[in-house]
Amino acid sequence: MKSFLFNENYKGHFSGHETFPLRQLWLSKSYKAVTQYSEIAPKNIFTDNDAIVRFGVGKNMVASIRHWAIACNIVKYVDGGYQSTRLGEMLLNNNGLDPYGEHNSTPWLIHWILTGRGKNRAVRSTTWAWLFNYVTQASFEKKNIYDSLIKYIKDKEQNISHKSIQTDIDVCFRSYIPKVSKSSPEDTSEPILADLGLLISDAKNSFCFRRGTKTTLHSGLFAFALLEFWDEYSLGINTLSFDSIVHDYGSPGRVFKLDENSIADYIIDLESITNGKIIWSDSAGIRQVIRKDGYPDKYKLLELAYE
User: How many domains does the chain have?
Assistant: First the structure.
C-alpha cells in the first residue's frame, strides 16, 4: 500500500520548530497556557508581549512550543484562537495521565503521533515520518534523507527551500540524538524523544536504527497505535494481517522499529487487554488479528500504558 505521505491531500511540512527539538515541559506549558481560558484561548497567546514571560523562554522558543503543541495533537487552532484536544486533556490536565511529561509512555506516544499512520498524525513532521517509514538501509547518512526529501517535494510540486529541508533534517536527528556539547542553557534539557534510543550514531556521519525489543513500550500503547493504524489503513475491515502490522507504511512495527518476535508478543497480549475484542489467529498459514464483539476504546487502552 502506498505511503500516507503520498496522499494527494497531504502537504509536506518542514518548518515551525525554529530549529529547537521538543523538550519535556513544553507540551505541558502550552496546554496550561491555552486552558486557562474557559473556551478559546486568544490567537495571540503565543505572540503577544507577555508570551516570553508566560512561557519562560525566548521569542523563538515560544514559537517552537506552539509548533510542537500542534504537531503533537495537544493543542489545535480553531477560528479565532486555540483549544486543547481530547488527547491534551487526557494527558495534561491536573488529574491527567502525565501532567509533566515524565512517564516512559509519553515519548513513545509522541513518536507515534509524529511518525505513524492515523488521523492527525505527521501533520507537521514530514521528515520524522519519512525517516521512520521510508529509510530501510542498515546504515545511512543525513545526505540520503536530504536527497530523498528533495525528490519528494519535487514530485509533490511543493515550493519549499532546500535550506528548510536541511534544517528540518538536522532538528529531526537532534530530537533522537542530542548534541554532545551543551553550549546554551536550552541545550541542558535533552529532547524528550532521545529517551527512546531509536536512532544511533555509528560513525561521524552515519546512523542506524535500534531495532528489536523495546522494553519501555507498553502493550497498551502498542494497542492504541495498532487501532489508529487499522482504522486509517482499512476502516471497517475486521481482519488485519500480521505482515501489515510489521511492514506497512505507518504501522506500529515500522515506526517503533520492532522485530517480528516482539510484535508477536504484543499481539498475544491483545486478547487479554481488549477483553477478547481483538484476537490472534494463525490458521492455515494465515497470520492475522481479528476484531470482534465491537470496537475497543483506543483511549482506554492508552490509559493502560500509564498505570
Answer: 3
